[in-house]
Amino acid sequence: MTELWWKSAVVYQIYPRSFADADGDGMGDLQGIIDHLDHLAELGVDVIWLSPIHKSPQDDNGYDISDYQDIDPLFGDLATFDALMKGVHQRGMKLIMDLVVNHSSDEHAWFQESRSSKDNPKRDWYWWRPARDGMEPGTPGAEPTNWGAAFGGPAWAYDEKTGEYYLHLFSPKQPDLNWENPEVRQAVYAMMNWWLDRGVDGFRMDVINMISKVLPLADGRLTAGQAYADGSAGYINGPRNHEFLHEMYEQVFAGREDMLTVGEMPGVTVDEAILFTDQERQEVDMVFQFDHVWADRGGDPWRVFPLQLTVLKGIFGRWQAGLAEEGWNSLYWNNHDQPRVVSRYGDDSPEFRSASAKMLGTVLHLHRGTPYVYQGEELGMTNYPFRSITDFRDIEALGQFRQATEIEGRAPEDVLTVLRARGRDNARTPMQWDDSPNGGFSSTTPWLAVNPNYREINATAERANPDSVFHYYRQLIKLRHDEPAVVDGDFTMLLPNDERLYAFTRRLASTELLVIGNFTGETVRAEIDGWEESELLLNNLPEAPDGLTMAPWQAVVLRRTR
Ligand code: TEU
Q1: Residue range 391-420: average pLDDT?
Q2: What DSSP designation does 349 have?
Q3: Which of 26, 140, 327, 439 would staple 450 via disulfide (CB 3.0–4.6 Å)?
Q4: CB under 8 Å, gap of 24 or more: what pairs does 227-231 form?
Q5: 150 alpha carbon – ligand 1 mean position (Å)
Q6: Which residues contact residue 453 at a Cβ distance below 8 angstroms, ignoring those fewer than 6 apart?
């Protein structure tokens, strides 16, 4: 059982740029993290995942790496990294790194060589292709395929030096590595072993279900009104994805103990996830799926639909059932790419912010799987009140805004409405530590504005208040550590057609837990029998519940034995 320690663990994600600025340049850094390790130890989390801190031109805030084996000077150096790792381990926690190897930065030495000439030995380390047959290289529409890039524009950049295009599924400064080439894979595995030998405990693998492309690369389907095609059929879960991850396991993780690997996989299906996470197949321990964070977007990327609770329950129900026997779920509401969940699926008004943040935490953490807490979630941090596009810093928001308004002709105000609700900068505003200027994040103006609500919502205030979101998250994390049914119990969804209440049971041997969360601002009675004699383990409101009648945004966890 020792290799499955992560089933009872809770992971905390740090976005270093926005966590804590120790050197006063407006940007978070490694020393800032060291200074706040006790906050995380007190919260009780088991693992810290660091978003990229490697050397990078910061085109996509570090998801564009120019040296995989060095620290960006913005964040510190390797000595400070080692000190951080030591501090984490001393507190009984583990540290996992981000692994961004679907693509590198265009400033990485590998790409510099690759682009230098057609016969360079590293030419084939990236995806180079000539212009479309019969078209003038470098002219609109001459790209080798019609795919769009995630941050706007085509997925191919023309390079005059050699007269060919290179593939970039994200920004032009993030060329895709060619995993078909065994030298690329060996270089990646060597780099991973170097970090593990240094003492890190595993990896979160960025878009790792995009590393295998379908050959030959071919046009995708064009949708009316969109400038570029969705090429995802050509790169999501390609034919060699499982093979590559198993090879990585053999060359990096085999023989190492107590590692944690989690693959970020946009568009992954339940059936695929079972294969990726079945321990016997030796690929990864768990995946990040996206269904529940895409539940409010429908088919049109430029519309926001109100959440339908039955849809959300359908999604979680399928994932819980699908990975019940083989494989394992990860559980998250938030990360550095998602808006703040209390603003998205809860109610961030002063009246209900705290209750709804706790309710959302309860429902998530009581599922079967490993929960992830994103920095500030434990404080109930909210979305930012963006006024205009100039308030955004994210390459995705800026790129998509440009494409939607300038090329696709959408109304700027409509596009802004969606970016306000869903933009990634909502998650990236600086951590709110106290009520001093800049929220205690930095002594100077931060790279991205602090949410003006930092005077009310901050770590110091949360820690001082026993009824806070912070102390409630401590209880949730402790419950996972103490109650085996939270970790290993089976899962049964109740009231699947109810649009207001989220309810389920977890059962392990003679212990059964009942979890109910009210997703509305109204009082709702749960029609569930047989829990009169149960014990109340958790309740997110100061008042005791009235039987199974749930007050606005109330959540309870009950336990019975039979
Ligand atoms: O994100 C992958 C991804 O699919 C994103 O495009 C995400 O779905 C989208 O931004 C949501 O709006 C990973 C990283 O988490 C992200 O920060 C990087 O920008 C991206 O890969 C490229 O490395």
Answers
A1: 95
A2: S
A3: 439
A4: 227/148, 227/403, 227/407, 227/408, 228/146, 228/147, 228/148, 228/149, 228/153, 228/154, 228/155, 229/145, 229/146, 229/147, 229/148, 230/147, 230/148, 231/145, 231/146, 231/147, 231/148, 231/155, 231/169
A5: 8
A6: 382, 432
Distances (CA, A) of 154 to 178, 224, 427: 18, 16, 27
Other CB atoms within 10 A of residue 242 CB:
17
Which tens digit of pLDDT belongs to each residue from 148-203?
Answer: 999 999 999 999 999 999 999 999 999 999 999 999 999 999 999 999 999 999 99
Whether the predicted pLDDT of 248 surpasses 90: yes
Phi, psi of 73 (to 5 degrees): -60, -20
7-62 residue pLDDT tens? 999 999 999 999 999 999 999 999 999 999 999 999 999 999 999 999 999 999 99
Nearest CA to ligand 1 atom 4: 266
Ligand 1 centre and the CA of 536: distance in Å?
40
Tokens of 389: 């596009």
- Spatial separation of the C-alpha atoms in residues 315 and 285, rounded to whole Å: 21
Cα 337 to ligand 1 centre (Å): 6
Classify strands 555-561 and 490-494 as parallel, antiparallel or unpaired.
unpaired
Per-residue pLDDT band at 220 (split at 50, 70, 90): very high
Residue with tokens 């095609």: 229
Around ligand 1, the residues with Cβ closer than 6 Å are 60, 63, 100, 150, 170, 206-207, 264, 266, 336-337, 396, 424
Ligand 1 pocket mutation pick from 337, 374, 418, 419 by most atoms within 8 angstroms of CB: 337
